[in-house]
């Protein structure tokens, strides 16, 4: 099953590098959004907390603009049946999850680096905690968006449905992620951030477990 | 491979496509599903292949007396159909290598060349298969269906888009498959029907 999942992951990666279905859309979104934020904030002074919120808004909507592609592209090209004939639903889900995880991790690292470079007021007090929260947040976003992408791929209004369905599901992750990032930025104290980290970890475990259980029903007719 | 279907029916929303379909197929048989356009031949083939759930009835599968579950059907079944889409951004060899990798098969470049040669496709083309003609694409789908040498081969309109040479390739594959496995063909073509040992007429609503 793991070999099948990795083969699907490599297929998605090779396909993405050739077709640039998601990468181009994601990069354009990030660059344009950060440029708009920079123009809007000229001469303004924002608290680190507000900037943290902005960072998560960019990460959330960047994910919304491209992460559904892994399943939507299979539906639009008509290759979902081909995948069904090749692998078990579990292997397909795991392969897609790995691909989305790589994509969202790379994307979020790019966003954070660009954010740190362009926002002078955004400084991080505890860098290891900050990156750890970004890592957990990325895993959480990837796990939630993978199953939601599988659900919306069969719908007619894919584009609008994805953020609408994703927002309530990702909300607990966003709240804990923003809170933990804010602590890492402002007051580096591990004991105050612990409940948020627990919530982020639990969220990932619950979402991935439920996704494994539900995926077969979502994937088949 | 043995297949036994009892009381199969399919509805889309409330519209019944067909109902109370019974049949059984044995190893070494070429079984044809025939019927007019819109009668539900492809739908029935998809149900047999586990790609659609029946609205009524059940199908059981077995190999030498051992039951095979629908979840594991993809391992023992090959499927080719006009509505099947392959990964058009990859070359023919890359497609075959990908399918082999997902199926956990070891296929070297000589194996891949042999498969391409068997269906009459060029072995040296490196361009993506999106540039292929519909007939060449159909030949690729035949490779997709036989790559893992499955005991059960499901073919939907197998000679669509093919020239005489391509049709000969299909019938050669069917004859080869019949020696050790089972073939089910959904078709309206007289030449396809002539390959079948038995046929089932689906009288669904057009």
Provide structural commentary:
The complex is a heterodimer of chains A (221) and B (206). Chain A is mainly alpha-helical. Chain A has one domain (2-219). Chain A is built from nine helices and no strands. In chain A, α1 crosses α6 (89-118), α2 (23-40) runs parallel beside α6 and α8 (158-186) runs antiparallel to α9 (190-219). Chain A is globular, with a radius of gyration of 18 Å. The mean pLDDT of chain A is 86. By secondary structure, chain B is an alpha/beta fold. Chain B is globular. Chain B has a five-stranded parallel β-sheet, sandwiched between helices. Chain B has a four-stranded antiparallel β-sheet with strand order 2-1-4-5, covered by helices on one side. Chain B has one domain: 3-Layer(aba) Sandwich (Rossmann fold). Chain B is 33% helix and 27% strand. The mean pLDDT of chain B is 89. Chain A binds chain B through residues 3-4, 7-8, 10-11, 14-15, 18-19, 77-79, 81-82, 84-88, 91, 220-221, and chain B through 49, 51-53, 71, 74, 77, 79, 83-90, 94, 98-99, 101-104, 144.
